[in-house]
Write a structure and sequence with these properties.
Elements: H1 11-14, H2 16-25, E1 30-38, E2 70-76, E3 87-89, H3 98-106, E4 113-114, E5 123-125, E6 131-133, E7 144-151, H4 166-171, H5 174-179
Antiparallel strand pairs: 1-7, 2-5, 2-7, 3-4, 3-6
Length: 186
C-alpha cells in the first residue's frame, strides 16, 4: 500500500491507545514493518483459511509456543457488517499446532467467528490465528487496513513493502520514525 495521502495518514500507525496495547503485548520497542488493505468487492468469495506469517521464527520447530513477537492491527475505512465480507477468525487456533488447528476448524469443532467493525473499531489479533475473508454481498467495497507490528529484533523480508517517500518520512517526528521499519525513497 502506498504511503501517499489519502492512503497514508500518520494516525493509522501512531494512535497512542493502539500502540499502548501493542507494546503491552510485546514490548516498548515495537516497529511497524508491513501494511496493506484488503478490499473485497461484490462477487468476492471466501478466502482460503490461512495465517499471516510466512516463516516461523525457528523453522526446525515451526509450532513452538512462543511469546508474541508480531501482532496484526486492522481497522475498517467503512463500517463492516456481515453483508460487507468481514474477516472471520477461528479463536484460540494461534495456540495450537498448525495441523491440529486446520483439522478442528474443518471439523467444525471450533467455529469461525465473523468480526463486524464500526468506524473507529480496531481489531488486534495474533498473526497465527486461522482466519479468512468472507464474500462481500453489497455494492460498497469493504476496505480493511492492516498493519503488522513486530518486536524490533524480528525481521521477515517475505513480503514486498512500499518505500516511504522522503517528504512523508521527514514530516514524521523522530519518535514516529523509530516506529517505522520501511525503506525510505532516496
Amino acid at each position: 500500500m502506498p504511503f501517499d495521502p489519502p492512503c497514508f495518514t500518520p494516525q493509522f500507525f501512531f494512535d497512542r491507545d493502539v500502540l499502548n496495547i501493542v507494546r503491552g503485548l510485546m514490548d516498548d520497542r515495537v516497529v511497524a514493518d508491513q501494511w496493506g488493505c484488503d478490499v473485497p468487492l461484490r462477487g468476492s468469495e471466501y478466502q482460503g483459511l490461512h495465517v499471516d506469517y510466512q516463516h516461523p521464527l525457528f523453522p526446525e520447530v515451526p509450532d513452538l509456543a512462543l511469546p508474541a513477537y508480531a501482532v496484526v492491527v486492522s481497522f475498517g475505512l467503512v463500517p463492516i457488517a456481515r453483508e460487507h465480507g468481514p474477516i472471520e477468525i477461528a479463536p484460540g487456533t494461534h495456540r495450537m499446532l498448525r495441523a491440529d488447528a486446520f483439522r478442528v476448524v474443518e471439523a467444525k469443532e471450533i467455529a469461525m467467528q465473523a468480526i463486524p467493525l464500526e468506524i473507529g473499531d480496531v481489531l488486534i489479533r495474533h498473526p497465527w490465528a486461522l482466519h479468512r475473508g468472507t464474500p462481500n454481498l453489497t455494492d460498497t467495497p469493504r476496505a480493511l487496513v492492516t498493519i503488522r507490528y513486530v518486536r524490533r529484533w524480528y525481521a521477515d523480508a517475505s513480503r514486498d513493502v512500499e518505500a516511504v517517500p522522503r517528504a512523508v518520512w521527514e514530516s514524521l517526528t523522530a519518535e514516529q520514525q523509530s516506529v517505522m521499519r520501511f525503506p525510505v525513497q532516496g
